[in-house]
Structures
1.
Amino acid sequence: MKVLVAGANGKTARRIVRLLAQGGHEVRGLVRKEEQLPRVGENGAEPVLVDLEKEEADGAVGRAVEGCDAIIFAAGAGPGSGAARKETMDYGGALKLIEAAEGRGVRRYLMLSSMGAEDPESRGEAMKPYLLAKARADERLEQSGLDYTIIRPGRLTDEEGSGRIDAAGSLGRYGDIPRDDVAATFDAALQAENTYRKKFEILSGDSPVEEALERI
Ligand code: NAP
């Protein structure tokens, strides 16, 4: 498949890009800074320079998704950013890619969301703008009619992945998951039709990724 990965220089997205490229997918890696372009190329993707907070869905964002079969939204404003960038990036950036997908006929859209988005009030005032932005982006995607998959991990770590996760609509607990295992989950979900039009949580767990996804 030809896949656009948004935020391609991000810590999770980099891992997603590498896995997809190794698996024979044609990957286009969207970044917003020129100095990030060579690294995206080294990871096996065709780099494309687009700032999701500055460009428009019917402009450069649309051109970036043109010809793709799928989009993976793995960008984010990051922990150091304030409420304004949760709005323009975590919600607005995801929204622009949804609109671009709709406009250019890209049917498949995988969203890197977050545990807590099911109840943005639940994690305290500091987390609320972020979780609200994620929840609104997820909701807009669910209403889009696209073949979406919304994946909500717990706290991301840089520990080595185990290849084993727990996945369910609601896991009923909170915890960690290595970015390696999040990337493996996106790689496996990309073409797993039983994950289309589904939203689920993932944490480190007991089942090999493919097996966990089969039960979704
Ligand atoms: P990360 O390393 O912070 O990467 C995010 C990427 O998004 C960065 O490369 C950043 O580029 C890019 N980005 C920011 N603004 C952009 C814009 N305007 N246009 C294009 N790209 C832009 O992310 P991560 O820690 O791997 O997390 C990935 C995702 O998981 C995020 O969506 C996050 O919300 C979600 N998540 C995180 C946690 C957690 O515990 N951290 C838990 C659940 C879900 P720059 O380098 O230029 O800033």
Note: Residues 194 and 216 are 7 Å apart (CA to CA).
2.
Amino acid sequence: MTAAGPMRVIIDTDPGLDDAVAILHALNTPALAVEAVTAVAGNIGIATTTRNVGGLLAAMGRGDIPYAAGAAGPLAGDGRTEVAIHGADGLGGVPLPPAWVPPDSRSAMALMDAHLRAAPAGSLCILALGPLTNLAHLANEAPVAYARIGRIIAMGGTIDEPGNAGRFAEFNMAADPLAARMVLCGPVPVTLIPLDVTRRLRATPEDLDRLAAFGTPAATLAANLIRAYFAGHAERSSRPLHDPCVMLMAVAPALFGTERLRLTVDCDAHPGRLVQVPHGAEINVALRINAGQALDRLWQGLGAAA
Ligand code: BDR
Ligand code: CA
């Protein structure tokens, strides 16, 4: 929360288990005013990510927040999914209530366009949790509205860590490298949170008991989602919470150490790989996190009484 009130945000997302935890945290955090949620294809197809957004809003009693379906695939190529991690329903089989209202009849891009034009320039930030396809379309189709975005905070890429979509690339960048390059090299300031940081924020089975004990709807559902994130990976002692890092960067930037790097995105040899080049776009990149404090902040945000 700033002196000017909560940060006004639109969440662009492909839920996805870690997306869902991030969304629950944002909806339960007074420092964030979530004005719309837009779905994009990524972890799973667009019909499913859109349905999951509607269900998450319903679970939090927020039928007043508009949501819409965006791009069904990347700007070029076939795209990729992450069914092995997130399950065929994107949420590891965790049930959600039916949406209170259907998705907005406009596309995700049209919904973002309308909100950006209605808000003072620079006052709305985008929290991007999936492939950057919707934002690239908006930049192409509505450049005036796009330039009114105050800032984009995006989970994506890797600097020194091995990739999770091939050796060199991270999933969100690899799923639509062209879109990622357009957004990183575009007119809106970007803060990027790569695997180097998101792999440090990890949930353990013990955390789940602590989380569930809060008893709030957000904490209870988040505990179920993270439990499902362990399913099939029972041999692992912890799981990374990639997308919640975006919400934490928005509300508690002091948890992170950032550096300005000049980057572009490889669209050829290793699609989605971040490359540091002298003429690249100057991006604020999170390279360090106080993981203990960040985890506390995440759990407290989910556990706070609404
Ligand atoms: C990113 O890829 C997706 O599977 C997660 O939801 C996260 O946004 C991590 O690489
Ligand atoms: Ca995601």
Note: Residues 12 and 38 are 5 Å apart (CA to CA).
